[in-house]
Amino acid sequence: MELQLAAVLGSLALGGALLVLFFGKWWQPLADADRRVKELGDAVEALLRLRAELLGHDPAPASDPVRAWLRRVQEAQDEAASIRARHDGGQLYVVRLVQYLLLPAGPAAGMAEQQLKAVRALREQGAALLDAALATPQAPPPLLCQPEDLDLPADPAGPGRRAHLNDALRFLGDPDAALGVFGAGGVGKTTLLRRVRELCGRVARFDHVLLVAASRDCTVAKLQREVVAVLGLRDAPTEQAQAAGILSFLRDKSFLLLLDGVWERLDLERVGIPQPFGVVAGKVRKVIVASRSEAVCADMGCRKKIKMECLNEDDAWSLFEANVGEEAIHRHSQIPTFARQVAAECSGLPLALATIGRAMSNKRTPEEWTDALSTLKASQLSTTPGSDKNTHALVKFCYDNLESDMARECFLTCALWPEDHSISKDEIVQCWIGLGLLPELADIDEAHRLGHSVIAALEAARLLEPGDNHRFNMYPSDTHVRLHDAVRDAALRFAPGKWLVRAGAGLREPPREEALWRDARRVSLMHNCIEDAPAKAGGALADAQPASLMLQGNRALPRRMLQAIQHFTGLTYLDLEDTGIVDAFPMEICCLVNLEYLNLSKNRILSLPMELGNLSRLKYFNLRDNYYVQITIPPGLIARLGRLQVLEAFTASIVSVADDYVAPVIDDLESSGARVASLGIWLDSTRDVERLARLAPGVRTRSLHLRKLDGARALPLLSAEHAPELGGVQESLRELVVYSSDVEELVADVRAPRLEVVKFGFLPRLRTVAWSDGAAANLREVALGACHSVTHLTWVQRLPCLESLNLSGCNGLTRLLGGAEDGGSAPEEVVVFPRLRMLALLGLPKLEAVRGEGECAFPELRRVQTRGCPRLRRIPMRPARGQGSVRIECDKHWWSALQWDGEDVKACFVPVQL
Predict the structure, then answer these.
(1) Euclidean distance between CA atoms 76 and 891, whole angstroms
(2) DSSP classification of residue 874
(3) Looking at residues 642-658, what average pLDDT do you find?
(4) Which of 365, 496, 512 has the alpha carbon at shortest distance from 437?
(5) Is the alpha carbon torsion for 359, 365, 369, 372 positive or negative?
């Protein structure tokens, strides 16, 4: 009996253990659901307390923002109650377990987590509204100096423009919170805003100055992207979350918002801009709105306005003469008379005076001037200055005066990008090459140089303007360009053939009107939010046969869109960069047999199909910056792509999924005798690098990602000693990444004339970097990450062209530059980085100094990032003459503890405290 009882008890114990083991596996997710629902309830209670506080101050709110917020709070409360009821209705463990198994996110957990984010966003917005309600009207602090006292060069447009600038700067110290600037297109509104951005730091103190282009097709999401780019914030998944992030960042800061090109009233609260404008809790919030319409300025709350008009005769002549050049005007005794008449045809419009002035700068004879004058009179440029018709005539005149058909075609394609978009020069040139607008050259670098010379000519003609580079905090920059919105409109009007351009227009689906697609040769829907497409290939897209299609930047492009475009068999150019393609290669592309240019960069593609060989005409294939290091390429594929000139499969990613993709590529290149002008690839052994070197000059390796390297202790690629076997790669290499290797020593003494970028990561044994003077003298970008044995980087001071230096997670780094004993300079010498624009120091726990002893000069520095450098207490910078402001992103406690060599050094930095 006792034995039977013991057996029963033992069985019960074993069964209980198994039950605990089995059900315990699922208990944690269910407990997480309980926690999430409780957190949601607590957050809603806090939100309701905030609502009560706001209503206690203003029981019957009249403002639209407050009433809209109260409505959203009630909706959030109702939704939270619904989630709680659903959660409580499944309290039986077995019921909840079944729900969990059927719905992996849990019946209520996923909804609770999502709603919690929304409630937190509402709390941020409500806190801002409460701040505004409790604030008492205050005048902003007095100006640091009067605008009239600024020592500025004479404006070529005359003293009237200086008066407008003074008025705008004086507004920064006025009680008014919003200023409107209105006038015809091309009258100088954008120029005025740029001057305010440039000079406002000398007359008033703001934590942030944001110049944002609203453009004609402006949406909340587009404005948010602009603001996020300027502030250097992270993207958020939804508009509401993005608004909360912007609001949280700006709420306790002084800022000046410069809104350019506003066509209609904008809801800035939805964007995340803190409301109201004025002085709130001691922080100054101001906005300047530029629009063609005075009524729009009024709708944006601007009581004070500046009307910008065309120039008077004397000022117009001064601006025209400055752009033509005195030498050109006085080259012949008759030219000054004709020049005055040409200037008069511009009717005082600054845009016309500048662009036509530049177009006339190469006219050498009176006959050329009279021909130009006749053309301008025939175009009736002087009627209604600033109107669309007037601007189109102006652009057409300058367009016709370009020196070649190639330059004219290249100019028109710039209109394919969104309005007011700052376009990377490298991106434009890549597009021109893919469209066949530049002559085919065996040396791809020569083609890029030709493209940049065309850009320089278009800038000189005033058809392109300098754009902004947010990464380097350069406004404007020499790396980006933009089209004036009036110039872009005109370019689209007289582009040859039919173009369908809806770039950056906030589209959720492609246009459905058949008339828009019919006969369109070039289609640009880039930088939208296309997430839906026709269920079938019928409808608007059925008969479309564009030659080029640009979809880049649609980050959630639906599969149905790809299914629709597989019928575009006439396509020669397809750009799908950053369109959210995950894992599987879109097989629909393999049907586009006439394709010559294909860009699939910045996606998550695992492998290429053999069917890609159907694209026998493919010349340019970009898979750059893929999420995965390796993309499996089947044997024989490259050999089938007999016309391939560019194969760019390079990435700096460290996500690895395969180890066998390299050999087929090199085998194909060797067996087929292919001539590839630009190759980007990943390798894991020096032997493979030698194989590539033997293929030169037929195959030019521009980008190389090296990993593992068979346990090698030294990196031979940059060594002159290994030039005999590696010279073919050393001569053409532009970009080098070395990751996850046991390399201990790096000797760089080879010339490597084209090398511009090097990145070293996860090299824990790397101790010595011996970089000779003159080695890779054109290097522009250096990055080191997780190289824990490196103690200093003195060698970077030997790089005269260095623009970006990024150091992260190097636990052994104690100083950036060593002394003479480390091959550096003596303390009394100032180390100059003549072109450095960006410096990132991230996660360097032992870094104590930028330089042990002595000073550094950074005349072009624009942006510094510092985080996780607790021992760094001093920036030994000697301000250069004309030193621009440097944006420094850092922790506020770190900033407060910094030691300065003088107030002149501290004044160079504008802290962005994260």
Answers:
(1) 34
(2) B
(3) 77
(4) 496
(5) negative
Residue 14 CA to residue 801 CA, distance in Å, equals 72
- Amino acid identity of residue 131, one-letter, is D
C-beta of residue 685 within 8 angstroms of C-beta of residue 704 = no
Q: Measuring CA to CA, which residue among 636, 635, 644, 586 is closest to residue 617?
A: 644
At residue 384, the pLDDT reads: 61
> What is the pLDDT averaged over residues 546-558?
94
Element (H, E) at 278: strand 278-280
Strand partners, 519: none
Strand pairing of 423-424 and 480-482? antiparallel
What pLDDT band is residue 433 in, cutting at 50, 70 and 90?
Answer: very high
With a cut of 70, say whether residue 16 has pLDDT above it: no
CA distance 487 to 414: 10
The closest of 596, 615, 735, 599 to 679, measured between CA atoms, is 735
Distance, CA of 811 to CA of 269 (rounded, Å): 43
Residue with the bigger pLDDT between 322 and 89: it is 322
pLDDT tens digit string along 219-246? Answer: 888 899 999 988 888 888 888 889 999 9
Q: Which residue has the tokens 């003479």?
A: 820
Name the 3-class secondary structure at 574: strand
- Which structure tokens are listed for 300? 């944006």
Q: CA nearest 630: which of 602, 609, 649?
A: 649
At residue 639, what is the residue type? A
Tell me, what's the pLDDT at 9?
46
Taking the C-alpha atoms of residue 243 and residue 220, their distance in angstroms, rounded to an integer, is 9
6 pLDDT higher than 70? no
| Beta-carbon count within 10 A of 660 CB | 9
Q: What is the CA radius of gyration of the chain?
A: 31
Please say whether the beta carbons of 416 and 211 come within 8 A: no
- Distance, in Å, from the CA atom of 117 to the CA atom of 113, rounded to the nearest integer, reads 7
> Dihedrals φ, ψ of 782, to 5°?
-130, 135
Whole-angstrom distance, CA of residue 713 vs CA of residue 741: 9
Q: Is the pLDDT of residue 27 over 50?
A: no
Q: What is the pLDDT of residue 137?
A: 62
User: In terms of DSSP H, where are the helices of 784-853?
Assistant: none
Asked if 358 and 393 count as a contact pair (C-beta separation under 8 A), the reply is no
pLDDT tens, position by position, 880-895: 776 778 889 898 889 9
Structure-block tokens of residue 315: 């000022």
Whole-angstrom Cα distance, residue 808 to residue 863? 16
For 795-899, where are the alpha helices, taking DSSP H only? 892-897
Beta carbons of 340 and 317 less than 8 angstroms apart: yes
- Whose CA is closest to 402, among 452, 451, 354, 463? 463
Tell which residue, 564, 659, 653, has the closest CA to residue 604. 653
Q: Which two tokens stand for residue 591?
A: 């049907």
* Cβ atoms within 10 Å of 479's Cβ, excluding its own: 19
Beta bridge partners of 575: 550, 599
**What does the DSSP 8-state code read for residue 887?**
E
Q: Which residues pair with 280 in a beta bridge?
A: 283
Q: Is the dihedral of CA 674, 675, 680, 683 positive or negative?
A: positive
Q: Are 258 and 285 spatial neighbours (Cβ–Cβ below 8 Å)?
A: no
882 burial level (CB within 10 Å; 0-12, 13-18, 19+): exposed
Q: In the block, which residue shows the tokens 């015809």?
A: 184
Q: What angle do CA 822, 824, 829 make, to 5 degrees?
A: 145
| DSSP-assigned letters across all residues of 49-86 | HHHHHHHHH-SS---HHHHHHHHHHHHHHHHHHHHHHH
d(CA 462, CA 455): 11
Q: Is the pLDDT at 533 greater than 90, yes or no?
A: no
Compute CA 482 distance to the chain's CA centroid, rounded to the nearest angstrom. Answer: 14
To the nearest whole percent, how much of the chain has pLDDT over 90? 49
Distance CA 909, CA 884 (A): 9
Q: What share of the chain is helix, strand, coil (3-state, %, to 5)?
A: 40, 15, 40
Residue 543 in contact with residue 570, Cβ under 8 Å?
Answer: no
